Amino acid sequence: MTNRKRLLFLSLIVTGYLIIILAVVGTGSVASRNAQELGTITQEIYAHPFAVSHAASHLKAAFLQEQNSILQMVLVRSSKQTRAARAAEIAAIDQEIQVNLQVIRENFLGDMSKVDELESNFQQWVVIRARIFEMVERGDFVAAQNLTRREGTAKFNQIAELYEYVQEYAQDKAKRYADASIVTTENIVHQTNLWLTSLIFVVVITAVIVFWRVLGLQNELRQQATIDFLTGVPNRRYFMEIAERELKRSQRYGNPFALAVIDLDLFKSVNDTYGHSVGDKVLKRFCELCKAALRDTDTFGRIGGEEFAILLPDTELAKAQEVMERIRNNIELAVTEAEQGVTLKFTASFGLTTSEIENVQLLTLFRFADEALYAAKNSGRNRVCIYQVQPH
Q: Which of 78, 184, 214, 376 has the highest CB neighbour number within 10 Å of its CB?
């Protein structure tokens, strides 16, 4: 072989290796860029819509608690000391409301005029409430009751419409982000395949490697889009998909369908006292106890920070209540290790409902279950409360 041919052969080999290297680098760059985009989308799912949804839920609970306190103040002619204690309680609730309003303002991605309107209505309510306080202090309970019924109730209804809008928009936005992640995943596959098909035969080996890499990335992204990373149970988006499907099946065949919403009692105090690592242990232990008491056909998912939901297809209300009581009892008896030699116990509150109304919407069932959950919280926690739906 002449030197010229040797040089040409060597040039072809080097060129071939350079093409392989460029293919690997180029394909890796495409996949990495899209993976970062998917990571950003996944982060936004938790950083914005779920933060707003969670804040709106707390806002709803705080407003209901404040409304209840005002009603007790105007309906019960209590002592001055009791009224002062009630006023202090309402002031504490106001602080919680302000915190949640701030979270919504910082993270809401929809029509900010709705947030402005929500804050404005709250300030208007503060003015009405001050007038109610003045009447109560004067001993004019009849006037206070009339003002509460005439203006206070109307203002509370306006506020309720706004925080319900904010919450529903945030939930819808989270679903849109999740759908966008699936579309982006499909684009990764398409772009990668298009890149590889444009290469010459020497890139075939690289194409196989890239294929498996992208396939692994797809599986990982699919896992992230459906499973909660901490507890390993279905996340909110995946749980809602299953729930929608099961509800339609239930309505089609006329089978019973039970839905429970669960919230760990005083979970914030666990994080504040022992740290978030212990809080994570509690969440994992809670999930283990719930899954151990459920059937393979049941679905258990995490829909918020310390809020979970259970779906029980083909289950009557009485049987669902029995299952929830068994889970509640198991949780109450369980012991979790907080630190070396230190253990803690925790409890949970349950809101349970069933689909007995024809063509009822899933969000409506969640609202029923949430109302039952709030009843469980307000009546002392660590219990199962039922929202009994009466068919028309």
A: 376
Q: How many residues are given for the chain?
A: 392
Q: What type of residue sits at position 190?
A: H
Q: What is the pLDDT of residues 174-187, one digit of tens each?
A: 666 666 666 666 66
Q: Which band of pLDDT confidence, cut at 50, 70 and 90, is reported for residue 27? A: low
Per-residue pLDDT reduced to its tens digit, 330-341: 999 998 887 777
* Structure-block tokens of residue 255: 């089978």
Q: Is 306 a catalytic residue?
A: yes
Q: Which residue's structure tokens are 């809670």?
A: 286
3 pLDDT tier (thresholds 50, 70, 90): low
* Distance in angstroms (rounded) separating the CA atoms of residues 53 and 157: 19
The Cβ of residue 272 has, within 10 Å, a number of other Cβ atoms equal to 11
In this structure, the answer to whether residues 300 and 380 fall within a common structural domain is: yes
Q: List pLDDT tens digits, range 340-371.
A: 778 899 999 999 998 776 678 889 999 999 99
Strand partners, 260: 310, 352
Domain count, the chain: 2
Beta strands in the chain (DSSP E): 257-264, 299-302, 307-313, 336-339, 342-344, 348-354, 384-387
Under 8 Å between Cβ of 285 and 336: yes
Q: Determine, yes or no, domain membership for 187.
A: yes
Full domain range(s) for residue 378: 236-387
Q: Phi and psi at residue 301, in whole multiples of 5°?
A: -145, 160
Could you tell me which residues are beta bridge partners of residue 258?
Answer: 312, 354
Sign of CA dihedral 107, 111, 116, 121: negative
CA 352 – CA 357 distance, rounded (Å): 15
**Residue 331: inside a domain:** yes
Catalytic residue among 119, 246, 306, 307: 306
Q: How far apart are CA 388 and CA 392, in angstroms?
A: 13
In a domain, 311, yes or no: yes
Q: Are residues 196 and 247 in the same domain?
A: no
Name the residue among 43, 57, 159 with its Cα closest to residue 104: 57
Would you state the pLDDT for residue 158? 83
Tell me the C-alpha distance between 349 and 27, whole Å. Answer: 50
Give pLDDT tens digits for 125-158.
888 888 888 888 888 888 888 888 888 888 888 8
